[in-house]
Amino acid sequence: MRKQRIALSTTHIIMLSFLGVILLGSILLALPISAADGKGVSYTDALFTATTATCVTGLVTLPTVTTWSVFGQVVILILIQVGGLGVITVMSAFMVFLHRKMGLGDRFLIQDAFNLNSLSGLASFIKRVFWGTLLIEGIGAVLYMAVFIPEYGLKGIWISVFNAVSAFCNAGIDIIAEDSLCRYVTHPMINFVTCALIVAAGIGYIVWWDIIRVMKDRRMRRWKFLTLHSKIALSATAVLIVGGALLIFLFEYNNPQTIGDFSFWDKIQFSLFQSITTRTAGFATIPQEHLSNGSVIVSCLLMFIGGSPVGTAGGVKTVTIVVLFAAAFAAVRNKNETNLFHRRISPAVVRRSLAVVCMYTIIIFGSTLLLAGQTDASLPDLFYETISATATVGLTRGITPILNTFGKLVITAAMYLGRCGPISLAVAFNIRRVRPDVIKNPIEEISVG
């Protein structure tokens, strides 16, 4: 009997590549050499740490600074860098620099990994992503060194490099202290550099190149010459950062557990940092369990939305949310077409945006339901945890360190599914061939809303 070959789609390959890196990382982290005490950690904790690093989330069951040896920290940093850029991107970059020709299959992999619309210029795109990432991370590391070297000596160099890569990749893991960046809540340099790295990566690579393209041509230095994608991503990012910071500022202004006793400028610093870090970075300058209920709701919304497409950020993405809101307003105004910035949005894009939000919601609610049966934590804390995991943010209200084995596996799965993308998950399990709808069902009107 003839054996059938299993043909893997690009989606399958991308998901399996992430899984392979996670499993390899978990094996390395489970080795005694990776632990600071030389005894090793449980495989569950090693798997959780490898997943949170590769999926650039930042939730940790064990303190990074005290649990892992230098070898373990190097493994975590490599996982963060590979996870932030994407496994396919790293592999493709090596092919490009080794002057190996990229086949059609390789091009499709890169296209799907970055959700691009064209197969042209992919080798150049990979080069720019690789060198652009190293350049910005390098600048961030040098700026961090101005603070960390005077404070930690030569160790400050390693801390600066680790923090720069983690911030740019939106991982939120640090090797400074067990309470993240809380000791630097009012430090202007740390706040500025961290926020700049988060935003730079969060707006997405294709927005970078679009801005550079417009700035290079003196005749085109105008907003209207940017692509529709860039306009949506930049506008949404600005609104979310400013709007989120303003709401958090108002909700926390008199909160004695957070910034109630801070100066006016320090309150602004914290509010901006919280608004930016919740959009998938995961660094904390204030314990999240001390936030007011209003700030918790705002933070959950910002985590759910996340950054922009084709970057290191997670969440459903800014463009997705803007498209859905535009489609909703179009429906309310009884219009058949969705328009943004005088451009028409394809119905296929609207359907895909709806699918992304629905799938993310299912993962979040499913994870929360599973955790609720295993812990006595409050519902807001559980939602905060699962949204943070699925959107690959990494902020917690004290739930992560007290999770049992089942809870750790639930959050591990949520981080993996959130990083791979709900649409990828749906496609991966849809093994049937796509056939044109030759026979269509009759239409019948229903009532909604």
Describe this structure in words.
The protein has 449 residues and is mainly α. The protein has one domain. The N terminus is likely disordered.
Entry keywords:
single chain, 449 residues, mainly alpha, two-stranded antiparallel ribbon, 2 strands, 1% strand, globular, disordered N terminus
Number of domains: 1
Q: Helical amount among residues, as a percent range?
A: 55-70%
- Oligomeric status: single chain
**SSE topology string:** HHHHHHHHHHHHHHEEHHHH
Main sheet attributes: strand count, strand direction, barrel closure: 2 strands, antiparallel
Number of helices: 18
Strand order, largest beta sheet = 1-2
Helix/strand-derived category reads mainly alpha
Mean pLDDT across all amino acids: 84
Number of strand segments: 2
What is the molecular shape? globular
What are the SSEs and their pairings?
Elements: H1 10-30, H2 43-54, H3 64-67, H4 70-85, H5 87-97, H6 104-114, H7 122-152, H8 155-168, H9 188-202, H10 205-216, H11 228-252, H12 264-277, H13 293-305, H14 318-332, E1 338-340, E2 343-345, H15 347-372, H16 379-390, H17 405-420, H18 422-429
Antiparallel strand pairs: 1-2
Question: How would you summarize what this structure contains?
Answer:
The protein has 449 residues and is mainly α.
